[in-house]
Amino acid sequence: MLQMIELEKAQGIVNERMPYLGTERVDLLQAHERVLAEDIYSSINQPPFNRSPLDGYAFKAEDSQGASKNNPVSLQVIEEIHAGSCAKKEVEKGTAIRIMTGAPIPEGADCVIRQEDTSQEGNTVQIFTELSQWDNYCFMGEDFKKGGLMLKKNSFLKSAEIGVLASLGVNEISVYKKPRVAILSTGDELLDVKEELIPGKIYNSNLYTIATRVKEFSGEPVILGIAGDDRESIEKNIKAGLDKADFLITTGGVSVGKKDIVKEVLQGMGAEILFWKINIKPGTPALCSVLDKKLIISLSGNPAAATITFELLVRPLLAKITRREDLELKKITAVFKDSFSKKSSRRRFLRGLLSETPQGRIVELTRGKQTPGVLSSILNSNCLIDLPGGSPPLKAGEPVEVIPL
Fewest 10 Å CB contacts: which of 41, 137, 347, 397? Predict the structure, then answer.
């Protein structure tokens, strides 16, 4: 008979069966919010030439010695260049080239004066400010140099990283594959959001909550929909999910009720049951199994319980599969702001709102009941408060362990 296990043991069992999906090459825009599977070195200097940072005039700094509003220096303008073009002439003593932001600084020039400090009439420009050598001069490779390491393997690619890759001329990179996660909700009481609500039924929130969370965690949800509380429907959908995805999540049907038959169906299909029941609340009846070498994680049908156990079991798994270090669960300490009147005979996770204040970290309960079937308390929740088994009621001002989400 299967024994109830501790959360950390359950997490270890799940992670041991982690599928390795490998890598793939994708276009740059498709790499957004993916994890880099290779080191990226710069193949060019950036900028690839000495560049002007402003609109003005390029000339030799020595020509501006003593220049002021009352004593301007006059230079002959011999050419005008814009971004995307190069000067055909070389700057010599007594000459200047009109230059626009981003244009290559011409040969012979060693500074650029901004347009506001000059006045041009015809082919002559008056310089009103004395400049030093290399003023307003962006050197080739100033941003990054050819051959330098730009992005390390396992970097999470946000817009800044995509922009850097684009500046290198990279149009395709290697990233870790996204896990395909099949999601199945079970229960005769469930309706899809597209259906009309009728007496005795409820809308299926679990599928949408979990599917969107999978997307946020760099996975691809494979929506299986709803299976009724009958063996044929559950078995058919499980087979379909295993055919389409890398692993499967189910919700509902894992407790001890008359129609909680998911475990029986899996055993009848030949699945290896890895564990059933975790010593936590909510989410005790979580079930984990393997069928056709693929992992199946079956969560409670209660919305809050399903969401919390997803964070505790599936999130760490997705963090390892996708190599997203930011998804790994971490614990910190905060001061509890509210009071919680219940004893916690079993390890309990409460939905909380964590804040940083001048006095330190504080955490308070979110609005709504802290019960397994109440989903509203997840709104504005950015953490789980981890209460050890055997904890007395909580009072304001007590330190608690918190898992930021």
Answer: 397
